[in-house]
Design goal:
This protein has 155 residues and is an all-alpha fold. It has five helices and no strands. The relative contact order is 0.12.
Length: 155
C-alpha cells in the first residue's frame, strides 16, 4: 500500500516544521552564547551604554543572530497558528506563544527570556501535538500494511 498524496504532503509539512524548530533551537543557543560573551566582556556597563561600546563586529554578529531568531520564530508561529485547532492547543498557552512572538518581532533586541520561553513552548507543542499525531498516523499505516504491533502498542 502506497502513501497517498495527502499523507506525503502532511509528512513534508511536518518535516519542514521540525527543521524550522531545530533552526530556532540552534539560534537560541547562539543568542545565549553571544549575550554571555557580551555580559562577560562588558560586565560593568549598563544596557543603555552597551551599544555605544560594542565593537562593530559584535554588533553585526548580534544583529545577524536576532534577525535569524526573528525569521525562524515567524515561520514557526505561522505553522503553530495554522495547526492551532487541529492540535487543540490550549488558548492560554497559545496566547503566551503569541505574546512572546510579538516581543521577538517588535523589540530591537528581544529579551532572552522571551525568546527562550517562545522556543520551549514551540518545542512542547510540536512534541505533544504534531509528533503525537504523526506517531498515531504511522501506527495506523503500519497496521494497514500488516505490521501489527508497533512500538509496543497492544491496541
Amino acid at each position: 500500500m502506497a502513501l497517498n498524496e495527502n499523507t506525503i504532503t502532511s509528512l513534508s509539512y511536518i518535516a519542514t516544521f521540525f527543521r524550522d524548530i531545530e533552526n530556532l533551537n540552534d539560534f537560541l543557543a547562539h543568542y545565549n552564547n553571544a549575550l554571555t560573551e557580551l555580559r562577560t566582556r562588558y560586565e560593568n556597563i549598563t544596557p543603555e551604554e552597551l551599544p555605544k561600546r560594542m565593537l562593530e563586529e559584535e554588533k553585526n554578529s548580534l544583529s545577524a543572530i536576532i534577525q535569524s531568531i526573528r525569521f525562524w520564530s515567524i515561520r514557526t508561529f505561522v505553522k503553530i497558528s495554522a495547526l492551532k485547532e487541529r492540535l487543540k492547543i490550549n488558548q492560554t498557552l497559545y496566547n503566551e506563544i503569541k505574546k512572546n512572538s510579538d516581543t521577538i518581532k517588535n523589540k530591537a533586541v528581544p529579551p532572552y527570556e522571551n525568546v527562550e520561553n517562545f522556543v520551549i513552548a514551540i518545542n512542547s507543542v510540536f512534541v505533544e501535538g504534531v509528533a503525537s499525531e504523526l506517531l498515531k498516523s504511522v501506527q495506523d499505516y503500519y497496521n494497514q500494511i500488516g505490521g501489527g504491533n508497533f512500538a509496543g502498542n497492544n491496541n
